[in-house]
UniProtKB/TrEMBL annotation:
This is Major facilitator superfamily MFS_1. PANTHER family: HIGH-AFFINITY NITRATE TRANSPORTER 2.3. The chain crosses the membrane at residues 36-57, 63-81, 102-123, 135-155, 167-195, 201-220, 268-290, 302-321, 333-352, 358-380, 392-413, 419-439. Keywords: Membrane, Nitrate assimilation, Transmembrane, Transmembrane helix. One of its GO terms (cellular component) is membrane. Its main location: membrane. It is found in: Membrane. GO terms for molecular function: nitrate transmembrane transporter activity. Pfam families: MFS_1. Belongs to the major facilitator superfamily. Nitrate/nitrite porter (TC 2.A.1.8) family. Residues 1-23 are annotated as: Disordered.
Length: 460
């Protein structure tokens, strides 16, 4: 979209009919930059919930006497809602635009975080017992609702920008938003040592409330949704939105969007690829602090710093470049290279006892997962152009469910093999990386047929 934004943040229309119908009714509030910036900020605020328990896992493990399996489930708790809610909320965008679903998810996170804060203030961090585990798990899951803003923000970004720029802007949205877990992984252990667990969560709660208020103030839906909310018929709303540069439009109601996306086989290939890439990113962001502490004997602040800099921030940063690369050479080829990198990194971690080698391998994993995540979402509007919201929900939701499924599996290896299980558990990612490599290679081979069947011209 290329319309200039006026000083009040509205897009000049340049449509003579607007002068007849009334400028106040038909002008577009905001523009592409503001639309994507607000979505990225809101995602940043909600996505920090990924590391709600990860950096302080040792505190909960010691207080409640958790096994490896239960610890894995707890650190993954925010991913349960943060992944599955992406499906209905991503599709809800097709009906209402992104702002309302965004605010509902962030509001649920505030409720969960507030409940956890009350529990800690009343029982005390040292007073938690195994009897509190179900409630802590429930509140953690509720706090993770903000993670689901990914699919909502993805659809919002897609509707603001033309298809040719999808890979770049979606990668910028995902990459910048993904930095919040890394930042919180660094800050939370430091705050824990300085002011304790309860005060740390109190500050986080305030950040969440203020961030939600800022999003509510500045978020803007794409032109089509703005016109629809002002009472224009669907055809007229589309015509005016197209005149302002919008290319992608909702394909129907929320359930219809999910059904439309689900009937296309390539949607499920993208789901599987995202399960490995973004689901892997979520899982290891929460698990690596425990790995560094237990397997390499590092203290919590150092473990958090290594996880943030050597994995989470790295993955977020390369994701931005991965989107541009996907636009340039194609998402399929980019995915092949990145999943091969994931498999190599996992194989090294299985046998690596040396700290430097292990750090290098986690950096390989982070880079591979970041680029792969960008490549997968570059393919979503390409393969499912008539149901972007539904496809974003399925890919982002079920795919991100890897963030919930994998940590308990890694914890099970620890229960079975002791400390050595922290290394042996990476066999899970070796297998997943190889499967994803096979799937992305298949997509590359059938690319001309797939894109044609999806209603998009085949690449030259």
């Amino acid at each position: 979209m290329s319309e200039p934004e006026s000083e009040d943040g509205r897009v000049a229309t340049g449509d003579p009919q607007d002068e007849v119908d009334g400028r106040a009714t038909l002008e577009v509030r905001g523009g592409p930059r503001r639309g994507v910036a607000s979505a990225t900020f809101g995602f940043f605020v909600g996505f920090a919930g990924v590391v709600l328990f990860g950096p302080v896992a040792a505190e909960f493990e010691g207080a409640m006497g958790l096994s490896g399996l239960l610890l894995g489930l707890l650190v993954a708790a925010p991913q349960l809602t943060g992944s599955l809610l992406r499906i209905p909320f991503g599709a809800w965008v097709e009906k209402t635009g992104a702002k309302k679903p965004f605010l509902v998810l962030l509001g649920l996170s505030i409720v969960g975080m507030g409940g956890l804060l009350v529990l800690l203030a009343t029982a005390g961090a040292d007073g938690l017992t195994m009897a509190h585990y179900p409630l802590v798990f429930l509140l953690g899951s509720l706090s993770g609702c903000g993670i689901a803003t990914f699919s909502v923000g993805t659809a919002q970004t897609s509707y603001w920008y033309p298809s040719a720029k999808q890979g770049t802007v979606l990668a910028a949205f995902g990459g910048l938003g993904n930095t919040s877990p890394a930042i919180f992984t660094i800050l939370v252990p430091t705050a824990l040592a300085a002011v304790g667990l309860t005060t740390t969560y109190a500050v986080w709660f305030c950040f969440l409330v203020v961030g939600t208020a800022v999003y509510a103030r500045y978020a803007v839906d794409a032109p089509y949704f703005q016109f629809s909310k002002r009472g224009l018929e669907d055809g007229e709303a589309r015509r005016r939105a197209e005149a302002r540069g919008q290319e992608l439009f909702p394909g129907g109601d929320a359930l219809g969007s999910i059904r439309e996306a689900a009937r296309i086989p390539r949607t499920w290939s993208l789901v599987a690829l995202f399960f490995v890439s973004f689901g892997g990113f979520l899982a290891l962001t929460t698990w690596l602090p425990s790995y560094w502490q237990s397997f390499h004997g590092l203290e919590s602040r150092t473990a958090g710093l290594l996880t943030a800099l050597g994995f989470t921030l790295l993955s977020a940063a390369v994701r931005i470049g991965g989107g541009a690369l996907s636009d340039r050479i194609g998402g399929e080829g980019t995915a092949i290279a990145s999943f091969a990198t994931i498999a190599v990194g996992a194989a090294i971690l299985i046998v690596a006892h040396d700290f430097v080698l292990a750090l290098a391998a986690t950096m390989l994993l982070g880079a591979g997962m970041g680029v792969a995540s960008a490549a997968v979402f570059q393919l979503v509007p390409k393969y499912v152009p008539d149901a972007v919201g539904g496809a974003s929900g399925l890919v982002g939701g079920i795919g991100a469910f890897g963030g919930f499924v994998v940590p308990p599996l890694l914890g099970l290896f620890v229960d079975l093999r002791g400390v050595s299980g922290y290394a042996a558990g990476f066999v899970v990612y070796l297998v997943l990386g190889l499967v994803a490599l096979g799937l992305s290679s298949h997509l590359y081979r059938i690319k001309p047929v797939s894109t044609a069947e999806a209603g998009v011209p085949a690449d030259d």
